[in-house]
Specification:
- The radius of gyration is 18 Å and the shape is globular.
- The chain is about 5% helix and about 45% strand.
- Strands 2, 3, 16, 17, 18, 19, 20, 21, 22 and 23 form a 10-stranded mixed beta sheet that branches. Strands 1-15-14-13-12 form a 5-stranded mixed beta sheet. Strands 4-5-6-7 form a 4-stranded antiparallel beta sheet, with no helix packed on it.
- It has a single domain, classed as Neuraminidase, CATH 2.120.10.
- With about 325 residues, the chain is mainly beta.
- The protein has 3 helices and 23 strands.
Length: about 325
């Protein structure tokens, strides 16, 4: 069991927020809006930030030099659609890509949340090749079967490669069911075994270790993991949001967000503040280390409003 502790020696603020609009606008032919929607993870690939979306079958590439954002399409989903939401009435068909890990060979792999059978997919992409989507139901079956990791509802939200392992972060924002409660947890897989499964159709990797995490709450809403990344000095930084959502599928108002450092000590966390020093209520869903500072990160925020673009910002964490 890992118990998060609020650390007065940590402080964090988010600023430099800007909307993520595509340089070439939207495309009705491609079934793609003119902005990034529901940003859920971010990773760096060369000079570009790769931004995963959970309700559009497209990956966004944001060039840090030109500040332009372009889309790379994923295959169409049910009904020939790439856009999925409650307004259209096809939300159940989305891939729900929620986490992304950087592999040692330079590729990125995005993970579906696993909160439904449709969401048991992996999307693999590199610097130039078209993304490929893999059916990973066997892997998600392993994750779901481990009650200590999945709890009542599986919801994978973060993925990090560290020391020969793939570290997965489970978000405990589900509903109690079947005698199980929702849990936040950290699970590890052997990276070599995962790559054999991914690239060669090898045996399904098993969980090597699982640790349940108590993240606490904000204003009565339980905190749940939303992403993780490596810091510049080799630790793991995690994001967690307190979202008043009824289960792992539906959204709710965000009451606050915290960032934490996970190393050999207990998980130390602090509230993320806005530019005015108030607790931020942004739904920070993705975090990636910036190479110019050990504890400065790019973050993406999901507005939970399909007509509004996701936001890209800067998160600065300080230690005293």
């Amino acid at each position: 069991m890992i118990v998060a502790q609020t650390d007065a020696g940590l402080h964090a603020s988010v600023d430099a927020l800007r909307p993520l609009m595509y340089a070439d606008g939207g495309s009705a032919l491609q079934d793609r809006p003119g902005h990034v929607r529901a940003a859920s993870a971010v990773r760096r690939l060369g000079s570009r930030l790769v931004i995963v979306q959970d309700d559009v079958n497209a990956i966004a590439f944001h060039d840090e030099e030109s500040e332009e954002t372009h889309a790379r399409l994923l295959p169409r989903g049910p009904g020939g659609r790439r856009v999925f939401d409650d307004v259209i009435g096809n939300k159940k068909g989305k891939l729900d890509l929620e986490a992304c890990a950087a592999l040692p060979d330079g590729r990125l792999v995005a993970f579906g949340s696993g909160s439904s059978p449709m969401r048991e997919k992996l999307a693999v992409l590199g610097a130039s090749a078209e993304p490929r989507v893999h059916d990973a139901r066997a892997l998600y079956g392993v994750l779901r079967a481990h009650a200590g990791f999945a709890g009542s509802e599986l919801n994978v939200e973060g993925a990090v490669v560290l020391d020969g392992t793939l570290v997965l972060f489970q978000r405990g924002n589900g509903a109690a069911r079947g005698g199980l409660e929702p849990v936040n947890a950290v699970g590890t897989l052997d990276l070599a075994a995962f790559l054999r499964f991914l690239d060669e159709g090898g045996p399904t990797p098993e969980l090597l270790s699982v640790a349940r995490v108590e993240l606490g709450e904000i204003a009565g809403a339980k905190l749940g993991f939303t992403d993780a990344t490596l810091t510049g000095d080799g630790r793991i930084a995690v994001l967690a949001c307190a979202e008043a959502s009824p289960d792992a599928v539906r959204d709710g108002p965000v009451l606050g967000c915290r960032v934490g450092l996970l190393d050999h000590e207990p998980l130390r966390m602090t509230d993320v503040l806005d530019a005015h020093g108030r607790r931020s209520t942004l739904k920070l869903e993705g975090i990636e280390h910036r190479p110019d500072s050990p504890l400065t990160f790019d973050v993406v925020a999901d507005t939970d409003r399909p007509e509004e673009p996701a936001l890209l910002g800067r998160l600065r964490v300080g230690e005293t």
